[in-house]
Task: structure prediction
Amino acid sequence: MREYRKRFIAIVRFIAFVRIIPVTIAGLLMISSGWAHAAEELKHGIIRIPVLNYHSIGVEPGNTYVLHPDVFARQMAYLAAEHYTPLTLADFARVLAKELPSPQKPVLLTFDDGYADNAEAALPILRQHGFPATLFLSPGAVGQPGYLSWPQVQELSAAGWDIEPHGMTHPHLPQLTKKQQREEITESRRWIEQKLGKRAAAFAYPYGEYNTQTLEILQEAGFQWGFTTQEGWATSAQSPYERSRLVVRSEDSFETWKQRLSVP
Result:
């Protein structure tokens, strides 16, 4: 009886193992095929770059846009260990425009809104790896509780972060008139350029919302790039004003985050 039971347990374990193998192989093939697909598209002139979209780096369970510092640190350590190359905004644009050779694993790190923990928690972690980042800032929130101060914004800029506008008051742009949209967009850029003494050329749509008037304003005002929250990798085939991003959410597992980063 004992011998029969041992054989039965061994068979069950073997079946479970066999069932796991296809799943594991499928996962590995998905990641491998993702980069292979990107390499194939590169041959045909289409360049793809994952753009990670973060917000707050802190502790607030249940808030999808607040990522725990330990999770963020683990993600950045993974990028470093897997030899990803985080890009400056200028290099990101040059790679997509085929003016600069693409690294093997490029990535753009972006932060929206301008939370104080971007300087207090995210900056030290990125400094450990020498990673640059891009912050889309709403100047109207600067100095408010929980948000960056101008000295902190200047610290990020001095550390190599690109600081770009995100609307003065983080409005729902499609709900505004074209004149109001223009004021929100151009004033946010004016404040950033005045405070930092650097040109701002990119814009991220608050809430990911925009309409045809928004796109017209960006073009008329001389912006070069616009970033959405549309899921997917940014590609050279997209409009420069409609670059896709991967919004990083706190409820996503580490494996889910890696898969989205690895499969275009």
In short: The longest helix spans residues 2-43.
